[in-house]
Every structure is written in structure tokens, then in C-alpha cells.
Amino acid sequence: MSTLAAFGKLPTLNSATILLVGTNEIFQQQLAETILQEKQDLKINIHLADSLPLPPERDHIRPRIDLIVFMVNMQSKHSYSNIEASLVHVDASFFLGKVCFLATGAGRLNQISIEVNAVLKLADLYCSPVLFCELECEKIRIATAQRLLRMLRICAGHMSGVSALSFSSLMKSSIGDSSFLA
Amino acid sequence: MERAPTEDTASGRKTMGHGTNFISTAHLSRGRISLKRGNLFGHTPAKRRILQTPRMQENADARIGFLLRKQLTLYSVTPLYRFSYDRLQEYSRQLCFVIAAEKQKGLAIHVEGDLKLKVKFSSLSVLKTSEKGQAGVLIQVTAENAGPKVVWIGCFCCTCGDDILETVMEDFTCFPLFLVNGAESLSAIIGTWLQQTFDCSFSLLTISPLNLAWMAAMWTGYKIEHHKRAMELTFSVPGTSQPLDISYAIHAEDAKALWDSIHTTQQEVRQEQVNLFMDGLCYHFYRHFKIYLSATRLVKVSTSVACVHSDGKIKILHSAYLMEILALMTELAISQIL
Amino acid sequence: MDEIVAEYIRRTVLRIPRSEMGRMLTTWGVFSENQLQSINLHQIKDKLSQEVVQLCEENGATIKHAANLDIIYNYTYRDKKVWTVYKMTKEDGDENVVFNWVDFKNRFKASLRLLLKNVTITFKKFEDNSMWIRIAWGTQFKKPNQYKPTYVVYHSQTPYVFISHSIFKNCRVLLFQALLAAANYSDIHEMDLRSRCLDSLKDIVFKRYNQNVETFNPQPLQERNSTLENVDPRIIQEDKNKKETIRKINEEDFGNGSLPKLQYAQYKLETVFKSKPEMGILNDKEPFRCLVTFSSPHLLEALKSLAPAGLATAPLSRLLTCIVPEAKNSFKITEKKSGFSHGLPDQ
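^ Those are the sequences you sent over. The predicted structure of the assembly is below.
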């Protein structure tokens, strides 16, 4: 089984790479475009995939991936099981702060096919934070893009004084708290 | 006609006695109940007990027949302020005036001809499931000079919602679930009047695919002797170039055999069992069509006992399991107002 | 003019949308040029219909004329009805008779009138070479009911017949006999193919729909992918190859031209329930009886988009891709020794 390694490759100068994994192509594309619209002093590469593992024939041209975002569509059980299956192909070192879950479509309560708890549990199992976001709404999409970019900068080591692991632990604990307040 | 049958009012009064006693002893915060029930984000519980409801009285069928085989719209309602079972006659009179006034304005109601509408509030003790539970309230609008014919019904209930009764504050009566059948225009007028009179708020009770799956599984398990119908699941497929619906109807006996092979616990139904039931059906489907039903949205479930649509419409087909169905709907309504 | 005829014409006129009124009345050909000019098309529909009836009265219109107008209306709005396809077959050795419409009509009428006196039969031929037959049924003691007619569409020298509207079983038998006699065939059966779109049904059974348009129209790959490719170079599709494969497989199954319009496909499954072994549920050898219906305003387009949207695996099940080649949208699936069988006609 080919796993995706966090430190298998050397970083590229002044750039950062984010990988979006999810079954909804339209949302992925939209989010990717929104991320690129943000002004950046580094070069951002965005890789899109519907599931893992990534095709091995492209291994040699793919830069080091700094952050993996797993997009779970709360309205599709299939999307959830797809992510569950993909997670197996990620090297453990990624879970030291370089993975994040993005749960979309949880706002329409009458349409959700996955328990919100299930996603929280999954994220907890993989020691990674969850962001909730309605990608149809442009403002939320922009805010999410900004959050992801900030995380990406940290994960790629472009933010001095913060490590990916410490930042992710910080996010997790704050999310954990807020979920009990809701 | 505005006088409710004496028997009904009597039982209503009795229940109210219980209610007030109870309310005065318990002042719980909303936060506490949601934590107690593990009900964050309106979650469905991990398991549900199979109700041991007392069989309804002999003549119950006739008394709840008005709820059967009709398309009912479901609403969740916040607790009613200063509602009293003793004042049902007064409510009937007031609402009757309001409707008449609206009709005079000629804005809202377009009932054929010049119908004389009468309103009657009555207490429904049939829907009382336990000693401390409360009776439901039925609102009937009748066209006097056309039969008389019932043109609109609304029914407040709180079936097996005992634990929420513990938490309501003094002066409030809790009927989390409201069922409506009749003209939209009348629903609007009556809804407005109820919201103003009792300072409560109605919202459409939509049902998520998660809960629909529960209903599909639980209702398939109910034993029915006559009028068996196929268990039908309707899925709406998102993201196709043209709208696409998939109806998946399973012969009642075969669906029950499948459920019985999964449901091995006597007293309760578990989330895993419901999941397994749906996953099994989806897999059988996938084997034939190579389509992931798990990527689509379950929007409607119909079984021999009831059909329910995610947009908050239900048709109850069988009186035998009415209480179980109302109890489940009450539970969902409670989770929506908490 | 008979009151029934007048009322029927009036109601038919009421159904015609204003924008089509002038054209349809002209096509109808009952009125003279002057009469047509005199009709005020802009008045209230009710008045207009009365005016038309008035003119019909003057011209002595009969039920034949009324039925003709009804056919014109239904020909234009043929997609409002549900059409069922029937296929006629000849026994081996039956000689081919030279076809002509006059014989066809005569034999059809003679066959039907032989057993049923009270019946209105109207024929009308259209430019697309189709013959429309409208039959209003009566009984021995009752006049034909003009409001529930059966429409039959037939193209000469083809074995296919398109019939709209449910009719009583005994009438159906009579109709079939008449059709077989008129078109010189020996047997007729339903094809389990139904749609609102008559033209699509014709495309399917006459094989006018070409599945492999690609060979004639080799569009360069780059161009077709341009929508996906045209994005920022900083966005990299990791599964481009996979998507391309799906697209190719899909094209093999559905072609890349426009697809015939069907509204549903129905499958009666009587196959053994099998789950993943780890589920460990219902290990029954008895068939698990299901009825699966796919419905959409444009079913084949919807099915075609399933795999690219990640909702199904490619290739899509043969059960779904065989709809057009087999000219069927109603199937019964039973378990066979190897895989599923759907050869049986749905009874």
C-alpha cells in the first residue's frame, strides 16, 4: 500500500502545497479558486483528488504536501466512507498537525446523512481539527480559505514561532470546547 | 356546538392538575436536558427503546380515526404560555370570531361558497400515554352548512414526551408536536392566532435522512396483519445534469425478513442495526446498478404503517402503531425546539 | 349540427393556446379564407370558442371534423401523453403485400366496425410520414365517448405501433385485431417501452439514434477538456487520468450526441439478497423482491452524468446502459447461473 509521507521530500523554496481530498468536484474546485484569490507572498500549489492513494505515476513530479484537507460532505454517507478509506493511505507523521477535516453542508439539518458526532469522532481518532463550512456561501468560503491558508503557512514552516503540531493542538482544544457549548 | 363533550373537559381538567403539580417541582434549565439526552446538534440517539405503550381503549380507533390516512403537516411548537384545558370553550369562541373576521376581510380564505365555519377545541385523552403525561388538544374547523364537514384539523400532542414535561417552567404547557390537515389559508390564520395567544412559535418539522432511515427500519419491523404495502424508499440524487429520483420498493415480507435478521435485541433498536439495514439495502442495489445510494439523499419512506416525507409531511395508515409514530415524531419535535 | 359535436369543438378550441390558434384553425381546413379572417383571435377564449362553433354550424361540420381538430391539437402537443410501443410480427412465409394507405384504412375500419358499431375512427397523415388514428369508443348501446379517445401512430411498412391512453381490455383486443388486419401482420406485443416523448421512442425503435457518433465527429480531446483545463495552473487534478477513463467509458455507453428522452426506467428485481460477508445478514436463497424505478424529466442524460459525478462506478451497470439498444424501459430481472438475466419480457 502506498502511503503519503509528510517528510519524504524536501520542501520547495518559497512555496507551499495543499491537497484537497473529497468527492464533490464542484466544491473542491470552488474552494481551490477561492484560496488562490487570496493575496500571498508565497507560491501556493493546490492538488485535488477524490480519494487516496494518489496515482503513483505522478509521484516524481508532485511537490512535498504540507497540508491535507479531507472534505466530508455531511449530506453523503458515501463521501464519509470514502474519506474513512482514504485516511488509511496517509502516513502517521501527517497527523502531527498537517491534516484537517472540512465538514460541508452541515447547516441544512434536514438534509444531513451523517451524524455530526461521527465526524467529530473521526477527527478525534486522527488527532486532527474539524472546520465546519457551508461552501455555497461565498463569505464563508472566503473565510474558510483564509483559515486554511494560515494553517498551510504554519504547516509549511513559513510562520516563525508556531509549529504545525502546537497550532493543531490549540485548534482542537478550542473546537472541543465550543462543541459542548453549542 | 362550542361546548366540548363533558367527558373530555373532565379528563382535561384532571390532566391539568397533574401537569401543574409536576411543573412546580421541576425547574430545569434547557442546557441540562440537552446534555442529559446527549442531544447536541439535534443528534439522533444511539438507540431507541421499543415502546411498551398500553393498547388503546376499545373505541379508540373511532376517536383517533381523524388522524389516519390523511396527509398531515408536522410542526414543532415551543411551549404554550398560559394555556389551560379549562378554557377550551373560550378558545373555540375566540378563534371562531377571528376566522369570521378574516373571512369578512376577504383576504385569506377562499372557501367555496359562503361556508359557515365553526371551531371546536377539545381535549384528546386518547393520546395520553402515562399517568403524568398530558392529553392532546384537537382543534376542528367544521363547515356547518355543508354537511357538516370537517375542513381543517390541528392536533397538539406530547406523546411519551414525559421528560420534557419535567423541564417546562411554570405557566407553560408543552406540546412539542402539532399536526395539521386542511387548507393553507386556514392554517395561516389559526397558526397566527395560536402564536399570538400563547406566545409560542411554530416551525415546520423537517426530517433528516438519518431519522428517515430509523423510521424505515423500525416501521418495517412492526407486525401488520392486513393491508401490507411494500416498503418504499425514495432517494433524490444530487449533482446529476438532470433531476433524478430513485424509488426502491421492497416487498413487505422480504424487508421484514431482512430487518428481523438484523434486529436481534428485543427491547431496543440500535443505531448500528439501522445502519446495517440501510447499508445492506444499498449494497444489494449497488450490486445491480453500480450506483452508490449512500451518495444520494433519502427523502421519503413509506411502509405499511405510515409514509413520511423529509419536508415534514406524514400520512399514518394504521391505527395499531399510531402511538409509536406520534412518540417518535414528538421526540424529533422536542429535539428541534431545544 | 349535433350538440355533442358543437360542445366537443368548443372544448377543443378552449384547450388550444392563443399563440397556436391561428395556425391550427388554418391547418384544420374547415373554414374558408374569409371565415378565418373574420375570426377575432384576441377576444376572450370563451367568446372565441363560441364564434368558432357558430362558423362550424354554418359549414355543417361533423364529428369527423371535430376529431380532426383534436388530432391536430394532440399532434402538436404529443409530449403531453404517455406513449407505449407495440411491435407486430409476421409468421414465416407470410408474403409481403404492397402497402398502400387506402387499403390500410379500409381494412382497419372494416375490422373494427365488424364488432363494434358505435365507434368514431379518424385518420390523419402528417408531413413526418406518420399516420395518426383516433378512435373514440362506444358500446353497443352507448355513443362513442369523444373525450377519452385512443391515439395510434403508425409509420407505413414498419412493425411498430405507438399507442397512447389506457383503454379497456376488450377494446384493446379489437384495436390489435384491426391493426394486424390493416398492416398485414399476424401478432402484436408490447415492447415494455414507454415515454412521453413520441419522437424519442421513434428514434429508439427506428435506430435513428446513433450511439457511436464519435467515429464521425472526432473532437480533439484537448478542446473537450478545456473547461477543466482552463483553470489556474496552480491547481493540479491528481485523478485526471481516472476522470478521462470514466469519460471514455461513458461515451462508449451513451455516445456523445443528444439522447432520446425517457421519463423512467423500471426494474422488477427477483434476485437473491447478498450482502458483504462481514455484514452477516439475511442469507436467504429465496429471491428478494424489489421494484426499482428511476425517474427524471430526461432519464438518460441523468444516468449519463452519474459516473462523472462520482455517484456510480464506470462502466455503469448493463441494466442501465441497455435501455436504448434493447428498446425497453421496463425490465424483470431474475437470477441466472451467471449474473443477472433480463431477457424475460415483463408480464
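Residues 15-181 of chain A form a domain with the Rossmann fold fold (CATH 3.40.50.300). Helices of chain A lie at 25-37, 77-87, 116-125, 138-155, 164-181.

Shout if you want it in another format.
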